[in-house]
Amino acid sequence: MKSGKKRKRLASLFFINGTLILLILIWTIPTVGIFVSSFRARDNIATSGWWSVLPHREWKATRTINPVEAGLDANSIMEIEGVTGTFEEFRAGIQSPDGSRITWIGNKRIGKIEVQEQVWSIDWNFTLDNYRQVLGGQDFKFTKPDGSIQVVPGDNMTGAFLNSLSVAVPSTVIPILIAAFGAYAFAWMKFPGRRAMFILVIALLVVPLQIALVPILRDYKALQLNGTFLAIWLAHTGFGLALATYLLYNYISGLPRDILESAFIDGASHFTVFTQLVLPLSVPALASFAIFQFLWVWNDYLVALIFLGGNPEFELVTQRMAAIVGSRGSEWHLLTAGAFVSMALPLLVFFSMQRYFVRGLLAGSVKG
Amino acid sequence: MNQSNSSGTPNLSLGGEILSFISRVLLATSIPLIAFYVLYQGFLFLRDSDAPRVIITLVAIVWGVGGVALLYWIFNGLVERLPDAWKTRLLPFVFVGPAMAILSWYLAIPTLRTFWISLFGRDGPPNGFTLLQQVASDSFVGLSNYTAVFTDSLMLEAFRNNLMWIIFGSTFSIIFGLIIAVLADRSNFEKLAKSLIFLPMAISFVGASVIWNFIYEYRPAGQDQIGLLNSIVVSLGGTPQAWPQWVAVAPWNNLFLIVMVVWLQTGFTMVLFSAALKGIPEELMEASRIDGANEFQIFFRIMIPYIRGTIISVWTTVIIFTLKIFDVVWVMTGGQFGTHVIATQFYRQSFTNQNSGYGSAIAIVLLIAVIPVMFYNLKQFREQEAF
Q1: Does the interface predicted TM-score (ipTM) exceed 0.85?
Q2: How far is Cα A38 from Cα B243, in angstroms, rounded to an integer?
Q3: B77 Cα to chain A: minimum distance (Å)
Q4: CATH value at residue A328
């Protein structure tokens, strides 16, 4: 009776952990694939799947036969090493009874025949060239198999990275600052229109930002603001402010009343209370929204496309990546390395501050 | 809530009221306006500067952040010098004014402006006219942009696809999130599992497009497939395809794009469900186990009803999110191959075709779609009565 129960428990534990591991594998393999590929040489990526870095069985030539010397006629049925077949069949490779494979490489006139054996192999030909090319921005020359030299223009991801940083940091800090002042006023000050204003904040939580793009772009054109960092800072501030105010209000209004009240009794002004007490006490909430907004801005594509779109000098990583996808969609050595460059900072922020991020999600709502 | 220093506000005459209103509005708008001007001047400098990129980056950051902080400090200082009655009246607007002004400029007023533009032709309302003159002008088209939105075949395709996005995208994100949350809760490596599932949340849609394009990568039959999906298909004896571009299965090729968003969003739903599940009292589950309920019964009869509120709000969030989906489709297919959605149509009409009237009508349709959620949020707020 007891051992049956124990066995059942073990079985369910096995089932739970097994299913979970399977799901985790499905979820991580896409990222792993890109990560591994970004370190593989250009030719390797283009000719074999990234999983060939894992031990696998591969056909390797053990010796080659010259068809002319062997007196073979490619236009008829041939017999090589005890197997018979047409040229087309040999091109695809014919397995001989002893386990080796005979393959005709090349065309009928100047081809060669390989006797291949299946061996375990690992494709560990890793390189940092992809990253150098993507970050360095200089043109890259490489020799093609036939000896000719091809020049591939470099991609200036470093510039895009710095641009993204110049956009993301102020676009994170400015809305937090403005929202914190607003949230403090909603929570601790009395003024006419307070309720109506807060209702507006809540109503704007879910308004899709698409609604604002056409009118704001008109304003920016009138102000000649298009294609500047200021334009996109303000846009992200505007689009993130409702959620920031709402989240920070929830937190700041929950701060212990007696601490603040005793400060007021001591004659502290609102500004002092805000900067000396409320901001330090709200660090967890500020941090969780900061991560939220930072990831959102860093990963944003639409807003950048519209307000920075016309100016290639200010291109962000998302735009740069999208441009490479569009223009050189099969240059996988660039795409994979570029994708990792664009993901590096958000992943770092994410892993170092995951706790705050989760807390922000739990307190949060929908962003427009 | 708190009225710590508002007790002494005297009643004002009408003139005083008006003066007070005007100065409040002026305060609220002047901070953003001055901030804007100062930042703008800085930008002219930055734009014309030849300094190295890193320096420009640093200056831009310090300039933007420091400039805004400084303004609050200056304005607060100014208002604090006023007599007490005026200080009490005006100070809240130094605090809350900039937020409200920016929200109004960037979201509240654009809602009305976009609606207005949607009543006009390609170029929107003509400049320099009064509203009435605008209505009388040739470019006023009334609701015909909306008729076009609901009859144009590409728009109908976009509606159909968005419906698929909403149904499949949200359902699968919810189901996987729930399953993973429940499993992780009982596994021996909960933290690691949750981190790994959560990781795609940090990846941009553009990055995700690269990742999944690589999985869908297509090589003609006979060559070695370097994309994972086609490689699996070939090893199972199938024919390789360029999956999202595979028009023969439209509209089901959208599923290849939806998968990406499920992959990105499941971490989000999982975290919220996981937190909700931890709120279920352990005694409740123990009691039902003693009564002989098996794990599936516990899942369906106890867990799901218990976290129903969370499921509904998470579901709403994901639905709104998929309603506005843009980046994935735009980068992966550009809306070709029968994959247009509302937001890509909006972008195409507003910015590629430069038809702002039509584009604005599409944006208004998006807005109308989220209005029920907006009302629900407001209702929740009223019921809480904590304000």
Answers
A1: no
A2: 23
A3: 9
A4: 1.10.3720.10
